[in-house]
Structure formats: structure tokens, C-alpha cells
Amino acid sequence: MRNKKVAVTGGLGFIGSHLVERLCQENEVVIVDNETTGSIKNIKHLDFSNISLDLGDITEIDLVNSFEGCDYVFHHAAMASVPASVADPIQCNLVNITGTLKVLLAARDSGVKKVVFASSAAVYGDNTNLPLSESTPLKPVSPYALSKAVGEMYCQLFADIYELPTIALRYFNVFGPRQDPNSQYASVIPHFISRILKGERPVIFGDGEQSRDFIYVKHIVEANLRACLSDFTGAYNIATGKRTTINQLVPVINQTLGRNMDPIYNEPRAGDIKHSLADVSKSEVLNFKPSINFADELGETVQWFVKNSCR
């Protein structure tokens, strides 16, 4: 993609900032972010000549003005934590459902060509019929998961009723540089890296045999670009189709850091699912089939944390 104007909601966040980093090289990028979980430090290394900031909450600011002249919108702004959504379902509903509706309305009214919606594998819930395909019935088990399922439905509704092309990307477990390890609800990989770097034992909720389909953030960026420029709509799994247990992460991170920290096991968290694995055959129509070297990608992530002293 080049010579376009695009908006990235949540563009100061973990995934959003990587998307901005790629897009701003050859396009004009508008970032919409309220800095709740995102940070300007995530893009401080970029050339701002092609970047403009519209700081504010998607539920409050004038998104039509934000999206003026934009060809595409990448919607990543969200309450992106299962435990946080369980603790505050009303706020989750406001940000993830009402916020998504406002993004879609503004995109429609601004003449945007397509909206790419960041959804989640959480919409499948604790479904044991693995691998999970896009035809698998949705079974959300947390307010976060429910909000993403509703967001997908709104995307399809706007495509059907208002002829606004939309595509929903169901991310599985994304990891990579710039994930926040200091959040109360930090994702497992940055949590493990941060604690081991500090000489502390990583905390595993449950027995550690729960498994995830981990995907590196650079592949997520590539999937967004391919989905945006395609003629396809609907929902697509964005994952590797490979499963890793939480217990398997600890020795790899220990080895990379030259440490030997045994994990602490705590009670499982409410709303967390046991296993997750994607059927990625449908996403191949997007010409998206990432080459995966999990150990190397995890190593790159660890080295970023070491270099940036996220301790």
C-alpha cells in the first residue's frame, strides 16, 4: 500500500503502533488514541512527517473529522483484556461495542473504502472442537469476547446495509516487541520475560498445560495490509495453526536469557480458555501464510525487552 491516507484507531498501542510503523513509510497516517493503554513512546522512533495524532476516546471525539479524506480505517482501539472486561463489563461494552459502532458510522459518513476490524479468537470461547474454523459456532465466555463478536456482527451489518466493505481479523495470541509487561493484565509472554529479567519467578494461572496459537506481531501487520487491499469481507482467523503450551514458554525464555527460573502456579483466572488452535485454511485466500520460526521470533522479542530495559 502506498500514497493512501489511512486511520489507525489504537495506533499508539502494541499492535497499532507496529501497523503505523509499516504504513507511515509510504502513506499518510492518522492515529486516533486516548492513551489509556497506548503510549507515544511506541512511535517515538518514527518519522512524524506522515503521521498526525488525534488524541481522544473513540466514544467521544468527532471521528468523522478524524477520518476525513481517509481511504481505509484499521480499528484496533479496544479494552483488550479478558480480566479487565470481567471486572468492568459496562466499560468494556462502551469501548468495544459502542466505540466500534461509532467507528463504523464515521467510516460510512466519511466515504472510507474499507474498515479492517481487529477481532479475537476469544469469540470461540472454550470450544474443544479444535482446530477452530471460521464456521465454528461462537461461544464467548467473557464480556471481552462477547464485545468482539458483536463488533464482527456490526461490521457485517454495515457491509450488508450500508455497503461499507468490512473485514474482521480474528487474532489468536499475538506477541512481540512493545507489549506492555507492567499492566495488571499483561499477556503471558511479556509477563514472563519481564519477571525473569528481574530475577523473579513467572506466574502461571492454572496448571500451565493450557495451549495457545501464538503469532508474531509482524505477521499481524502483514495480514492487515493484505486484508485491506483484498476484495474479501467477513471474518478470518489470523494465526499459525500451531499450538504451544504455557509451560513450554518458560524454558525457551530462560534459555534465551541464560536464566533458570521455575514458575509459580496460581489459580486459573475467570474467563480464560483452556486451549486455542486455529484452522488457517480460509485466510489463505488473502495470500496470507506466514513463515513461522517461533523460537527465533520469541528470541527477537526477548532481545527487544533486554535492549529497552522493560523491567
UniProtKB/TrEMBL annotation:
GO terms for molecular function: UDP-glucose 4-epimerase activity. The keyword Isomerase applies. The keyword Isomerase applies. Residues 6-239 form the NAD-dependent epimerase/dehydratase domain. Keywords: Isomerase. Its EC number is 5.1.3.2. It is an enzyme of class 5 (isomerase). Gene3D superfamilies: NAD(P)-binding Rossmann-like Domain (3.40.50.720), UDP-galactose 4-epimerase, domain 1 (3.90.25.10). InterPro entries: Epimerase_deHydtase (IPR001509), Lipid_A_modif_metabolic_enz (IPR050177), NAD(P)-bd_dom_sf (IPR036291). This is NAD-dependent epimerase/dehydratase.
